[in-house]
Automatic annotation (TrEMBL):
Lineage: superkingdom: Bacteria
Name of protein: Nitrate ABC transporter ATP-binding protein
Pfam families assigned to the protein according to its UniProt record, in alphabetical order: ABC_tran
SUPFAM superfamilies: P-loop containing nucleoside triphosphate hydrolases
Native organism: Azonexus hydrophilus
CDD domains noted in UniProt: ABC_NrtD_SsuB_transporters
Amino acid sequence: MSFVSFENVSLAYAPGGANAIENVTLSIREGEFVAVVGPSGCGKSTLMKLVSGLKPPSEGYVFVDGREVGGPLKIIGMAFQAANLLPWRTTLDNVMLPLEIVEPFRSNLKKEKAKYTADAEALLAKVGLAGYGDKFPWELSGGMQQRASICRALIHQPRLLMLDEPFGALDAFTREELWCMLRDLWQQQPFTVVLVTHDLREAVFLADTVYVMSKRPGRILVRKEIDLPRPRPLDVTYTDAFAGYVHELREHIGRIRES
Ligand SMILES: Nc1ncnc2c1ncn2[C@@H]1O[C@H](COP(=O)(O)OP(=O)(O)O)[C@@H](O)[C@H]1O
Ligand SMILES: [Mg+2]
């Protein structure tokens, strides 16, 4: 039983225009960690818009949790390359923002304020931001802002977390720290992840399944299961098995770029 599925999905931004993605079929089970890789402009963000109901497909069907997607879904949390924290709110108030919007949290917010605040503080602590709740975004490093942004995406306990190149703007060391943060969050609390990334090592380290997309119009070229045992320590990235996966994906991407 799949949790997210695409059946022959195409999307053209202009009616009758060229497809941004074409004939995409895929199936994601609940709890799966999926990474989507492909060259810039191949339709990765478009795929995210289709899952989250921000765009309807031009052709085909998108299902989430057994229902055809017909508009924005509240079981989804999202984070992007830019942390996009509101500069006039503290880190804690940024993390709690979805609770002011998404039901049933919105209706219970007054009554449950103390509990929700404690939950948000606990989540910040889990990602290494204990004690930073009252800081403003500009008082945090880029990596800390991205940690907070992922807390905001998870505070309403979404069943599906959508991440669009969330670590793309960070340095290599910070990026690896955030891989481990995401791995631990996902290991502790079951949710489904769709991670869009340029970084093949990131995809192999984190994902159960990696999809490689072609150049525009984006199609799924390869679906690769990553059979590295879990939990995966960062050291796994130095093993031959890991390098083998990265090389294999790299070759697929290389072929796309030459074609
Ligand atoms: N809102 C839009 N209107 C028209 N074209 C768009 C829009 N968003 C994206 N595109 C086009 O669709 C293609 C896929 O874009 P996108 O999904 O953002 O790619 P990626 O995230 O893989 O870089 C690109 O050619 C892009 O120019
Ligand atoms: Mg994109």
